[in-house]
Amino acid sequence: MEMPKATPTHEFLRQFAGDWVSRPDDVHPEPVRESAVMIGDMFVQITGKQTSGSENSGGVPMVYQFTLGFDPEKGKVIGTFIGNMMAMMWQYEGDYDADANALVLFAHGPRFDGEPGTARYRDTLTLHPDGTRTLESATEQPDGTFHRFMFATYDRA
Fold this sequence. Notes:
Blueprint: H1 8-14, E1 18-22, E2 32-39, E3 43-50, E4 63-71, E5 76-83, E6 90-97, E7 102-110, E8 118-127, E9 133-140, E10 146-156
Antiparallel strand pairs: 1-2, 1-10, 2-3, 3-4, 4-5, 5-6, 6-7, 7-8, 8-9, 9-10
């Protein structure tokens, strides 16, 4: 079997490798530290940790794994997310927007409004020219628009 060749999208993912720290915000008043490593040329694995728990987590420190890659057969960015703050594995699929220098990922997950069922989510991970990275998380509304519920900025550590 021939090893797959890295694409421009894989090269974009490579830019996530390294250590990052979030700026405090309303959702995460304490910084989240991330360490991202490449798995070969195909995937980046991001491990995130918040050293102390917030009121939202019952005082338990947050830990998560976020893995991203590009599936040339599908022509889609793919990924998974797991964390100690929930009991499900999120499965992402989306696109690399070269003009915005961003990944736009979609997933279905539990509703956060207390209603039964699932909702569609959109996460946008953008690399900015100043070296920062942002994450915007939004949930789809009944009219098809997305409502942002989280925004975080990360700096290289």
